[in-house]
């Protein structure tokens, strides 16, 4: 069954007052309950896209529906569904953690619920700082306060714009644990990150945006399968000066020291080619004492994609 | 056929259908209380300092000038300046509070949350302007009480006094809100109160009746909108006025309408709030 997308962006463009075109005819559907990672270099338009969906930036043309509600004409319903953690740290320095998070809940029209706020603060390891003024918190704690604010009204959709910038490794793990739990409870999560390993670990689908254009949207596994390169490295017993002519039909390179033969192939490529390669190597009487294979990461794929576009 | 118009009408119609205009009262309350708690935090600055400056005005103007001008139209000079003084504080404090209230989230970036929340422009204005106006009204009352310590006061029309107080506080808080949206630096934030409001209230008869001016200057003074506010306000105290009360009330209503129109336009276009 094909579900109605929870967010549907159609033909969205944004030209800033400066005349700069930050988004060009963007189409994007986000599925209910998924973790979607938006990847792209600095200035690609990630924050612009998120800001338009959340109502902070006016679109120039195109339409966005959130939970089936148009973000302009039915903004109340659309925005009630969304929690946003923006990229920039922006907090009320002199407020306490508790007050600022409770304020957010009220702003979104939800009745007070101290028990729920407590739960959110505990999950984000902020409970023992609940009465601290925000100005006294560290950068990573402030970012968690912003996450708590975004979660305060129990949103169905959570936007995380570079959520782990400035958060230490231990807390990264906690945070991703929280994100996973949120998804398990049915929340849809859209995140942007520069840490591609995170997208690789966390996301169900990946979108790549560059210069205001979505250049690819794919299931992460599919993306790896389509664009992932694999390498087979054979460690030779005897050094070679050149790739033997008998193996010329294969895409082989010799390491600079001459002690390794490297075979590069598409992961979707023909499996039989590897066995014929190995057979030919045997026939050419080249002996090897070890072999290993490597897969390219999402990062390699990403760099290649952006360079190509 | 005008397709764009048809589409717009269609949109408006669906807008109506999808959104019965319910008011997000919790949001208004959240903004209002947030702003009021900011005042409580800066109590010294927001309440104590105006009280001190009021007392200083009494000492300087009341004692020094009052010893020469004993009475104006049957009211002692010290009592005569109370409405003008209150009005002056009301104007400057309303503008200062409201402009700061909306400028600060713009400055720190926390405005993102207001913009992304399911709140209408009306609710945002109600929260911010309501809080700023409340503060000014409270302040006005405190100044009145302080003045009562120095001079014998009289209130001929208390209901009208309250009406002028509330209307003026609202109007100038709206003006402050507009200034706060327009300002893109702390300088601009201070320019209007400093260069417009204070001079106009000094020249608007806070400390004298414009009837004491030469006829030419009386006519010129009537260009100053603050004259109408102070005159009407003073009438509610002592039943004496420079201009007729209905004109005062009419002018106040016109300012209010103008400010409302500008605020409406700001939100319609997203001027300086949304990029
Ligand atoms: N208010 C603005 N006026 C003019 N141009 C803007 C404005 N805001 C952003 N831009 C431009 O729009 C482009 C996209 O910006 P955006 O912030 O969306 O990028 P991003 O993908 O989030 O980048 P990053 O990874 O650095 O956060 C950039 O070139 C930026 O300079
Ligand atoms: Mg960004």
What are the salient characteristics of this protein?
A: 309 residues; alpha/beta; Rossmann fold; Alpha-Beta Plaits; 2 domains; six-stranded mixed beta sheet; four-stranded antiparallel beta sheet; 10 helices; 28% strand; B: 275 residues; mainly alpha; two-stranded antiparallel ribbon; 2 strands; disordered N terminus; binds adenosine-5'-triphosphate; binds magnesium ion
Description of the structure:
The complex is a heterodimer of chains A (309) and B (275). By secondary structure, chain A is of the alpha/beta class. Chain A has two domains: 7-224, Rossmann fold (3-Layer(aba) Sandwich); 229-308, Alpha-Beta Plaits (2-Layer Sandwich), CATH 3.30.70. Helix content of chain A is 33%, strand content 28%. Chain A is built from ten helices and 14 strands. Chain A has helices at residues 46-54, 75-80, 97-107, 114-123, 139-151, 169-184, 196-202, 220-227, 272-283, 298-308; strands at residues 7-15, 21-30, 35-39, 61-66, 69-70, 82-85, 157-161, 188-192, 205-210, 213-219, 229-236, 252-254, 260-266, 288-295. Chain A has a six-stranded mixed sheet with strand order 6-7-8-3-9-10, sandwiched between helices. In chain A, strands 2-1-4-5 form a four-stranded antiparallel sheet. In chain A, strands 12-13-11-14 form a four-stranded antiparallel sheet. In chain A, strand 1 (7-15) and strand 2 (21-30) form a beta hairpin. The longest helix of chain A is centred in the middle third of the chain and has 16 residues, at 169-184. The radius of gyration of chain A is 25 Å and the shape is elongated. In chain A, 36% of the residues are buried. Chain B has 275 residues and is mainly alpha-helical. Chain B has one domain. In chain B, 77% of the residues lie in helices and 1% in strands. Chain B is built from eleven helices and two strands; from the N terminus they run H-H-H-E-E-H-H-H-H-H-H-H-H. Chain B has helices spanning 3-18, 25-41, 43-65, 77-108, 111-116, 121-150, 158-182, 186-203, 215-221, 225-238, 245-269, and strands at 71-72, 75-76. In chain B, a hairpin with a 2-residue loop joins strand 1 (71-72) and strand 2 (75-76). In chain B, helix 2 (25-41) crosses helix 3 (43-65), helix 4 packs antiparallel against helix 6 and helix 7 (158-182) runs antiparallel to helix 10. Mean pLDDT of chain B is 83; it is low at 1-21. Classes of the chains: A alpha/beta (309), B mainly alpha (275). At the A-B interface, strand 5, helix 2 and helix 3 of A face helix 1, helix 2 and helix 5 of B.
């Amino acid at each position: 069954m094909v579900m109605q997308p929870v967010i549907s962006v159609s033909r969205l463009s944004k030209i800033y007052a400066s005349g700069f075109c930050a988004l060009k005819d963007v189409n994007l559907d986000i599925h209910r309950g998924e973790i979607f990672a938006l990847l792209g270099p600095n200035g690609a338009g990630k924050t612009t896209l998120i800001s338009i969906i959340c109502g902070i930036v006016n679109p120039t043309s195109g339409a966005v529906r959130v939970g089936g509600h148009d973000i302009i004409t039915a903004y109340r319903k659309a925005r009630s569904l969304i929690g946003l953690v923006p990229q920039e740290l922006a907090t009320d320095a002199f407020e306490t953690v508790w007050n600022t998070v409770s304020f957010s809940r009220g702003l979104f029209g939800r009745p007070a619920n101290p028990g729920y706020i407590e739960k959110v603060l505990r999950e984000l390891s902020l409970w023992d700082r609940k009465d601290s003024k925000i100005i006294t918190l560290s950068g990573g704690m402030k970012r968690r306060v912003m996450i708590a604010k975004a979660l305060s009204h129990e949103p169905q959709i959570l936007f995380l714009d570079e959520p782990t910038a400035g958060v230490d490794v231990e807390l990264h793990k906690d945070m991703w644990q929280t994100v996973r739990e949120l998804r398990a409870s049915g929340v849809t999560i859209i995140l942007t990150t520069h840490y591609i390993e995170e997208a690789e670990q966390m996301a169900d689908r990946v979108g790549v945006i560059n210069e205001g254009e979505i250049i690819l949207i794919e299931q992460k596994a599919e993306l790896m399968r389509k664009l992932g390169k694999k390498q087979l490295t054979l460690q030779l017993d005897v050094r070679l000066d050149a790739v033997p002519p008998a193996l010329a039909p294969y895409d082989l390179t010799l390491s600079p020291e001459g002690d390794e033969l490297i075979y590069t192939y598409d992961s979707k490529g023909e499996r039989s080619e590897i066995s014929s390669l190995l057979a030919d190597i045997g026939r050419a009487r080249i002996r090897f004492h070890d072999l290993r294979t490597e897969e390219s990461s999402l990062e390699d794929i990403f760099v290649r994609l952006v360079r190509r576009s | 056929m005008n397709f764009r118009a048809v589409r717009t009408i269609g949109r408006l119609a669906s807008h109506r259908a999808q959104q019965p205009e319910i008011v997000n009262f919790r949001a208004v309350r959240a903004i209002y209380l947030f702003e009021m708690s900011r005042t409580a935090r800066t109590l010294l600055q927001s309440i104590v300092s105006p009280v001190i400056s009021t007392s200083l005005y009494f000492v300087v103007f009341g004692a020094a000038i009052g010893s020469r001008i004993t009475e104006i139209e049957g009211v002692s000079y010290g009592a005569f300046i109370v409405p003008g003084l209150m009005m002056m504080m009301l104007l400057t404090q309303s503008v200062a509070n409201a402009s700061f209230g909306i400028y600060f989230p713009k400055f720190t970036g926390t405005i993102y949350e207001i913009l992304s929340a399911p709140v209408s422009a009306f609710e945002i204005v109600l929260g911010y302007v309501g809080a700023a106006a409340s503060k000014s009204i409270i302040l006005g009352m405190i100044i009145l009480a302080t003045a009562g310590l120095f001079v014998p006061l009289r209130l001929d029309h208390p209901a009208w006094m309250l009406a002028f107080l509330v209307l003026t506080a609202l109007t100038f808080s709206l003006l402050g809100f507009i200034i706060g949206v327009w300002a893109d630096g702390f300088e601009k934030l201070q320019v209007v109160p400093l260069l417009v409001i204070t001079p106009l209230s000094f020249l608007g008869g806070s400390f004298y009746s414009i009837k004491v001016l030469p006829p030419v200057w009386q006519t010129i003074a009537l260009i100053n909108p603050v004259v109408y506010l102070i005159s009407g306000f003073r009438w509610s105290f002592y039943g004496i006025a420079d201009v007729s009360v209905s004109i005062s009330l009419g002018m106040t209503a016109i300012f209010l309408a103008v400010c409302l129109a500008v605020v409406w336009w700001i939100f319609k276009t997203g001027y300086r709030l949304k990029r």
